[in-house]
Structure formats: structure tokens, C-alpha cells
Amino acid sequence: MKLSVITPIHNETECIPLFLDKIKPVLDDLKGIEGWQLFFVNDGSTDNSLDLLKHAHLKDNRINVISLSRNFGYQAALLAGLQTADSDVYAIIDVDCEDPPELLKVFLQKINEGNHLAYGIRSQRPEPKYIVWCRKIFYKLNMLIADSNVYMWMAEYSMFTRHLRNAILKPQTTFPFLRTEMAYAGYKSEGIQYQRQKRIAGKSHYKFYQMARFAIAGILAGTTFPLRFILSLSVAIFLVFSVLLFSIHDLSLLTFLTIDLGLFYLLITIPLISIYLARTYKNVVNRPGFFIDPQDTYI
């Protein structure tokens, strides 16, 4: 059984050597694995990351480098790695070691027990309380309004079979969100709870507004609730207007309230429809989610 590990990177010069020191002994020690390959996906790094990866590749040809032509984002980098790697089992792990590489042994055990997916449940992590609170809102809201199943407290740290990998790659969307596709596929899975660690080096590239954008994109990737909400809102406003029409006899007041209701309805519905229309337009145009730069790719 062959294993491919996908690791996206963007300006992670400080983390790369430390990550390799931690993960290589873990991969070498995995039982039942005939061979492993590590695929770093260089997502438009502007520091010395690519040079470090080229050096690592020359020392160990099991370490591969996929360079994207520019920064396409975390999810696109994961898809690039999954499309390129040919394996029996796949794993996703970040380079900052917040997710302990040692957990891969437990993931593999769960795969060998018949699961198609083993993933980390990272409900505990050292970060500010307001971030923890926001994460809880994201997961609870996502589960509440999602059109299909959602794995609570799951991120991308996981190991999965080729069957699930193929299922992940099937949707032709320009707004990929892998954990949504993993849950939608519905294959047998098991979550493993663990304590997330602090970054091994460097600083996180995710600012609060980027995390918020990521969360909103993730929710929209798995729900049509906002569109269905518009229908419910339309019925509610019609009922309110009907009550006002038969209970208010002052024409000027009725006109004022009707205009207010209409403006409220438009302020809610037009932005929601616009978001989904923009996403539909991009999916129809269907531009590739990423481009690989062959000059800086070493496989």
C-alpha cells in the first residue's frame, strides 16, 4: 500500500526543515506502507521556501515539489496535490506542525480497520478566546444549515482512501471546500480527538478577516439555505403586509410601512441572490482552479 502526503506551503521557510525532521521518521515507521511520497504544493511562495524544497528533493527523491504559477489559495493547493499524486492512500497535513504528524499512525490504523476516512477532531487548540468562540459559531451554524452531512470540528488534517480521493475530485467547482466534499461522499469514517499544538516556527498567514472569508466560503459551499430563506422571508413579509393592510386605515402610515418592508426585503434578498449568482457565473465559466508551473515542479 502506497501513501502520498499532501502539504501546501506559502512562505514557510522557518517551518520546512523542522517539519521534515518530524514527519520523515513517522512516515518511515508506518506499518503496512510499502512506500511513501511527500508532495509539497508551493502556493506562490515569495520567500526562500522553494529553494529549501528543491534541496530537500535532491537529498530524498520521495520528497516532491509542485509549484503553482501564483497563489491560488489553500483549497486549490490541496486539489493540485491530490490530482498529481498517484497512490492507494492519501493524507493531508500542514507544515506548521500544529497538527502532530504522530497522529498519522492512528489514522492508518483506522484505515486498515475498514474506514475510508480518518480525520482529526481539533476542538481544543491554544488560541484567543474570541477565535475559539468564532470557530464554534462556524461549526454549529454549518451543521445547522448544511444541505448534507457535516463533520464537527474537522479540518483538513486527515487520511483517506483512493475511493474518497476520487470522490473529492469529481465536483467541477471553482469554490472547492474539501471537508464538505468528504462529508458529502458519505464513506465510512472515524474522527480522532487530539490537542492541537502551537506553530513550530514562524507566524500564521491567516488574519481574522481571512479566517472569516474562509468560513463564509466553507458554509456557502455546502448549503442553499440562504436561497430557501428568501422564500420563507417572502411569505412572512406577505403575511405582515396583509395584517397591516386590514388593520391600518391611515394611508400615509400604511405607505410608509410598506416602503420600509419593501426596502428591508430588498436589502436582505438582493445580496444573497447576488452571491449565489456570482458563484454560479464563475462555475459556468469554469476557469481552472490552479495552474502548475512545470519549471519549478520536481517530481
Provide the low-confidence segments as ranges.
none
The total count of helices amounts to 10
- In CATH terms, the superfamily of the largest domain is Spore Coat Polysaccharide Biosynthesis Protein SpsA, Chain A
Strand order of the largest sheet: 3-2-1-4-6-5-7
Query: What proportion of the residues form beta strands (DSSP E)?
Result: 15-25%
Organism: Candidatus Scalindua japonica
Pfam family, one: Glycos_transf_2
Keywords: Membrane, Transferase, Transmembrane, Transmembrane helix
GO molecular function: transferase activity
Structure description:
There is one protein chain. With 299 residues, the protein is an alpha/beta fold. It has two domains: 2-129 and 147-206 and 289-296, Spore Coat Polysaccharide Biosynthesis Protein SpsA, Chain A (Alpha-Beta Complex), CATH 3.90.550; 225-285. The protein contains ten helices and seven strands. The protein has helices at residues 15-28, 49-59, 74-84, 103-112, 129-145, 162-169, 178-185, 208-220, 225-247, 251-285; strands spanning 2-9, 35-42, 63-67, 89-92, 117-124, 154-161, 189-195. A seven-stranded mixed sheet has the order 3-2-1-4-6-5-7, sandwiched between helices. Strand 2, helix 2 and strand 3 (63-67) form a beta-alpha-beta unit. Helix 9 runs antiparallel to helix 10 (251-285). The longest helix has 35 residues, at 251-285. The model has no long low-confidence stretch (mean pLDDT 92).
